[in-house]
């Protein structure tokens, strides 16, 4: 099977989350779609919504026995049926009919076309199963990609994007980033194990060298001692032979031999004393040399160990200091950026509030369904001086999972549902002093995410307006 890519699809293709619930609050009660010409699955359907797409949704749920009957109104029964369907096929369970739920209900097959086919092709492409044009046409190449996915997960390779197939596709797309993180953790553990093994091998090698040096010194001392003992034995044998010869001569001439024997005995005693002194001196010298060698080896080993410990301590101290300095710089940069953004936002809130009413009424009808190319930045509510409450009253600190963007109300009316490239479905629920014209500011949960986003050029599509 082809290697699956590890990139996530956009939140739009993963189904609607808690952000969509926010869209319902701002859209009001019995909302009516302003774009009946759109395809099924292109617009978010939720409780209170009335449209031809809701009618189509109710028919599909009724065909599956999840809803007795329905009309063009998204009722509480519709929401309950959608929830049951999502649970049954491992979809995102939120009771809202987004792209993912619409695709699973439609069971796309060869010959189908349109928006839902495009979304299916995008998910298959993200997993490396579809490497062709995202054209919204369910042809043989799309069918082959669906069959390959089904085969990989033990499903019948029908080529039809059944609800079960769409559920597995959703799980596979979400699982890819976790696999990459696990592989990175395993690599770090292996690297640490290799480093520890190298240090242990170096220590064993040093110990072996020290033991070899001590063994060589001991062997040398033993050899010197054996040589001294052999020389003493040979000398004793020679003395014994001389004594026997002297005794024979004494028998021939007792008087002369007696005098000579006395002289020889004195000489032998003197020689024995000198030899004993020489042996004792040699033994003392050998012992001194052995002790000196052992002391020198111990001092050298101690010096090497002390040097290694000192180098390791210096390296650890340098690494710790560098890490602390980098962390301090990063924290200071994040705090400064957050404070600057908060100041700009607070300064412009009053001006934005004054122009909001007029701009909203003039642009509401024109903006719906329009796709704008905008300059995007990011902000967070978790910063010094930030209240966390948007211009439309959304408490971001109490609802951190909300998807909210700040807009110029004269371009995108406040309260609109928008589809943001790389961010997903969100509510145009905030304003900002620097957000003028084709500029937006995306809400992020943390400072780090906001700073990492930086400044980008993206597309924003207005799905619904108030």
TrEMBL record:
Q: Where is the composition biased (Acidic residues)?
A: 192-353
Q: Which GO terms describe its cellular component?
A: outer membrane
Q: Name one Pfam family in it.
A: PG_binding_1
Q: Which CDD domains match?
A: DPBB_YuiC-like
Record region (Disordered): 177-369
Q: Name the Gene Ontology molecular function terms of this record.
A: hydrolase activity, hydrolyzing O-glycosyl compounds
Show where the 3D domain sits. 403-463
Compositionally biased tracts (Polar residues): 356-365
Question: Some GO term, biological process aspect, for this entry: which one?
Answer: peptidoglycan turnover
What residues does the Peptidoglycan binding-like domain cover?
A: 54-105, 114-169
Keywords (alphabetical) are: Signal
Which InterPro entries does the protein's record reference?
3D_dom, Peptidoglycan-bd-like, PGBD-like_sf, PGBDSf, Resuscitation_pf_RpfB, RlpA-like_sf
User: PANTHER family from the entry?
Assistant: CELL WALL-BINDING PROTEIN YOCH (PTHR39160)
Q: What is this protein called?
A: 3D (Asp-Asp-Asp) domain-containing protein
| UniProt source species | Alkalicoccus luteus
